[in-house]
Amino acid sequence: MVLIIIPFIASLLALFFKDKLAKVLALTASVVQLITNFVLLSGFDLKANAFQYFSSYTWFNSLGLNFTSGIDGIAMVMLLLTNLASVLIILSSWDNNYASMTKFLSLVLLMQGALNGVFLSMNGLMFYIFWELALLPIYFIVGIWGGENRIKITFKFFIYTFLGSLLMLLALIFVYLHTPGDHSFEWDQMIIAQMTGWESTLVLWAFFIAFAIKMPIFPFHTWQADTYSVAPAQGTMLLSGIMLKMGIFGMIRWMYPMAKNACGCNYNIFIILAVIGIIYAAIIAIKQNDIKRVIAWSSVSHVGLIAAGIMTWNKEGLQGGILQSFNHGINVIGLFFIAEIIERRLKTRELTQMGGLAKYSRGFSFLFMVIMLGSVAVPFTNGFTGEFLLLNATFNYHVILGVVSGLTIIFCAVYMLRVYQLAMFGPEKDNGIRIGKLSWSEFVTLGLIVVLVLAIGIFPNWILNISETSVDGLLNIMKGGKTL
Amino acid sequence: MPPIDHYIWLSSILFSIGVIGVLIRRNGIVLLMCVELMLNAVNLLFTAFATNFQDSAGQVFVFFIMVVAAAEVAVGLAILVMIYRNTKSVDISLLDKLKQ
Amino acid sequence: MGSYIAIALFSPLLGFTISGLFGRFLPKNVTGIIASLSVFVSFVCSIMLFNHLHNGGDAVKLETFNWIAAGNISIDFSFLADKLSVWMMMIITGVGFLIHIYSMGYMHHDEGFYKFFAYLNLFIFSMLTLVLGANYVIMFFGWEGVGLCSYLLIGFWYANKEYGYAARKAFIMNRIGDLGLLLGIFMLFNVFGTTDYQTVFSSAGTANSATIELICILLFVGAVGKSAQIPLFTWLPDAMAGPTPVSALIHAATMVTAGIYLVARSSVFFVSSELASTIVLVVGLVTAVVAATIGLKQNDIKKVLAYSTVSQLGYMFVALGVGAYSTALFHVTTHAFFKALLFLGSGSVIHAMSGEQDIRFMGGLSKKLKITHFTFLLGTLAIAGVPPLAGFFSKDEILAKAFYGNGILVFILLAVTSVITAVYMFRLYFLTFHGEFRGTEEQKHHLHESPSTMTIPLIILAILSCVGGGLGLSSLFSHHHFADTFLSSVLTNANIPHPSHLFEIVVLVVSVVLLAIIILMTRSYYTKKQNVPTSADEETGFGRILSKKYYFDEIYKTLIQKPIEWLSNFAHDFIDRKFIDGIVNISGRGVTVCGNYLRRVQTGNVEFYLLAMVVGVIAFLIIYQLV
Amino acid sequence: MLSYIFYILSGLTILTAIMMIAARNPVHSVLYLIITFFLISGQYLLMNAQFLFVVNIIVYAGAIMVLFLFVLMLLNLNKETEPQKSMKTKLAGVISGGLLLVNLLGALVKSNSSTESLPITDVGLVKNLGMVLFTDFVVPFEISSILFLAAMVGAVLVGKRHKGEMEAISE
User: Fold this and answer.
1) Cross-chain Cβ contact B12/D36 below 8 Å
2) Interface predicted TM-score (ipTM) over 0.90
3) pLDDT means over runs of 10, chain C (627 residues)
4) What is the CATH number of the domain that holds D22?
5) In chain A, how many domains are there?
6) Measured between alpha carbons, how far is C624 from D18 in angstroms, rounded to an integer?
7) Do C331 and C283 contact (CB within 8 A), yes or no?
8) Does A216 sit behind a cis peptide bond, omega within 30 degrees of 0 on the bond before it?
9) Which of B23, B96, B99 is closest, CB to CB, to C610?
10) Are the Cβ atoms of C614 and B19 closer than 8 angstroms?
11) Chain D residues 39-78 within an 8 A CB cutoff of chain C
């Protein structure tokens, strides 16, 4: 509960302060939030397969809308990511001087609150409300502080996501109508809804499209690269670092248990789509010249792998998917921040305009290198463990799919190294612009990310343990369905 | 006394006449009058049912409908006067400003 | 004993941290000494471990913590020092230490000095992890780590665009192999539920043979990438962009032999899989021949050595293919000695020539670079297989095993390759050190012998190249084959009969005679007649194909790179922009068009609205009544 | 006996209603409508709804219709100046209305029609209705006064001449 309230209050408060003070306030709020999260984690029983910190308040009884919240291991990981990433994102905006910074930060905090709400909700309707609520701030962030063509692109993004939301709402209501006894939107009631296989399939597809758009999975991805490249850096970080995880989380928490009677064959289609997305996006990323677009496409590719992994529906895949969601959040925030740092100095995102940046910024090139390696999934960086588990799951699911999605480790190396090389290596450009020294906020942000990249790379079990029991529980729920 | 069916017939006919009136006349005032006719048709039906079920609620409703009708006429006529002032006519065919 | 493993691993890592973080503030010599010392500590540890194992001790296992645990997958971060690992450790730390010392001299003027040593230490750490890992995943960790270091070191002089490309190419080609290896590891998980060496090997018999074949092939794909075999070998010559000590350490002595280590490590599987072994054999053989022939026409001193390395690696794979795993490792060892020597020697030459690498502009260096010349000559003789230097014994053994294990055809091809090797090595030697100096006056004036930090490692390596053969004397000379005895307990060698004495004597005599002829011929051709090779573009016929490296790069470019780039553009511009966005836009446009039509309905006429409303109500009622 | 009165009244009501919509002169329409309302009041009386009978006459026939007449006179629309719609539109209107009627009656026919005559009750007496109105429905009743107030204010506001309106008219 507190997790939701803090950012909301802070977001309101932030409106009343001047820029500098608002930054301090926002940062404080997010740090407090993170600490709260850790306190929750310390009181969290890793062995218990239950929703902890469970609380329920009646809100609109006639609508079945209760304010029910609870945390299981999966949600805990997501919450950690959200709050951690929010600190990083707010920290990363320290050197930005957008017009009306106050509003900007307020929106970011609002977003944080909504995202926490999404991960906490145990009530279908509440989930939907927070889901939509999370959408609003980002719409304004992109729409107001975005770059060229922002209105058109934001519109496209909005239409896409609303289509998804609509389908999700329909699915939720549909399940609601099939819950036993007095209809209820409560999660534990919804997962025991009586549906035929055919109805389940419908629900499954509605959920899938809703979440696939958010993630995004091929072929629902075309909003993504545009939006990422046009959004302000923090907006992109929010979108890619956390918001996209809403889709993954939604799949794990809502889609699977609810549509458990659906034919497993649907998952085949999903996985194939996801795997196509992996390769498709990776191939496109190879030729992009805008650094943010490369990262955007790489994100599609990585998320495709996560999706494929969790949809194999075995424990390794799920665990890998959850871990990799966390990792991807951290890495992609790092990468986008790097793009932002370069853009701040060079005023361009074109790779062809860069080169030789490594020479006068050793620290930066080191940090960049580690984050990039995390993305390329070199062992001992966080990306490796996740991809290892995911690829293993995909491989065990189907050999050919495993091999094809395995190509990602090659392509990822190709485009990431290309970015790194074009930006950092090669002869210096004679425009005389250098990265120079990083400001303290830049350094701290990137430093934190690098520490996380390495720490999770060496001790992935830290994350895996949190979610393990819940994944087991989830798998038990699923055993009742036809999928297995 | 006639059965309830006949009251329904009567009020249906009156209501339809009101509708036809709305559709074929162009004078705004007459239109309002047709609306009144329709309201009365409904009132009649209400009363008939109230009598049929011996329940006074129906008649109370008629009373309220009259209240609303009176208010409606007051405002409606005021608007018409206003329109007349602007267009020198109460012909509703001229009112195509909604298009914009 | 486990603590020795820990120290051996930790010490280079510490060195990396110190030189990486504080190297900037330390004097160059201090950084260099710290880095070298850290490797030396590892070397001492390896000796201790070696001693332990040699005296009949059990394999040492060091378990630290559980790295990854998810579902059925549980990976311990543990290390295993058995005889094979320790053997490799000795090579890595020993040669690595020498090369560290050498680098102190070679890199002395470079501004990235501390960074260089940091990378080198990191490499040693990764390589040790590779050979010490107690399961395939830890090995894979080291495997990727050395790939990364290789990338960093090839692209060390990053300001040069070409070097950057070379580094990237190396990393990506390695990654292709890595995918195979990774899939192999998945298969292992699938079949055995673990990748721990001891468990996997002891239950190897339980799996069905087709699966084992597949696992072997996948693992071998990994080895092909790392050890630069056809078709993934083109990165290695390009990798010569890195500083020469790197070429010596990574791209000759240690990293590229990781593939050999992998196959040898999995010898239990390979021995039982016919198909996979045959593939290994064929790939190795083809690579040996192709790379050797290319080497004939290269003019860059380091590229010649690079192709020679590829070719020698091919040799090792042939040995692996016939099932003579300890022989392969024996050759790994001797090769590490003489190839490191040759590379360091070439580095010394390049150092003296102020960065010039083209042998067409060298010549007559023997007068100025006495130590370098002498040690280089020893290296050349060793690689050419002159008895009793190290190369002779290991090559001879491979030839013998191929003859007895696989037949005459393989033997002949290998023998021919051996001859070609001798030819291009002596061509290199004579062009570099004899004849007239062909460089500029300035270079000539500048020529000097390298400092002692560089020459001492050369001398030590030269000694090792001479006596390294002692590790595996053939039965003709001794009954004790040290490498074989030591390693046979961990390797599952195929049963290949020992060569007869007659065979050995014949080979010995023939090779001595052939070598003598080759030496004389190349000497007269390049030194006496002063023939200088032409550049690649002036070559004709087969020579042109050779100097263009069989057009491998061009073929890859056309067949792989171009289509992918085309696909990328196609996917982005057509599928994404036109097709998917098209669908999205059509739905948008559809609404607009409908809107345009529907707008006419909005006449703004109140009467019309009324009528429409009534009609609507009627329609509604009708429907209601019908239903 | 009462039935006959009902049928006569009904016939007259329908007739005057038709005359109302058919009359060209708006003033005539108003007069016909007043007659219609009186006839409907008669129906109320027939059903023993005395209160409604009185209110109908006072409010509708008395107040509302007089208001209409007032406005008509005020705007000087008592001539047959009203432009007529085309025959086509009229026909469409009549057909629509007719269809509506058919529909409504069709619904009635489909349902179980009862032939029982209406009972005679005294719920419609002023006393009884007053009791109900001031006990059960007292809140809506009071609120309706607010509605009136709002309507009054609204009417005044709308009907008021705004500044600058004269220029708009003269244009």
Assistant:
1) no
2) no
3) 82 86 80 88 88 82 80 82 86 89 83 84 89 87 88 82 84 87 87 83 80 88 86 84 84 85 86 85 89 84 88 88 85 88 87 80 79 87 82 83 82 87 87 80 78 84 83 69 78 77 82 85 79 68 72 79 80 77 78 82 74 85 79
4) 1.20.120.1200
5) 2
6) 29
7) no
8) yes
9) B23
10) yes
11) none
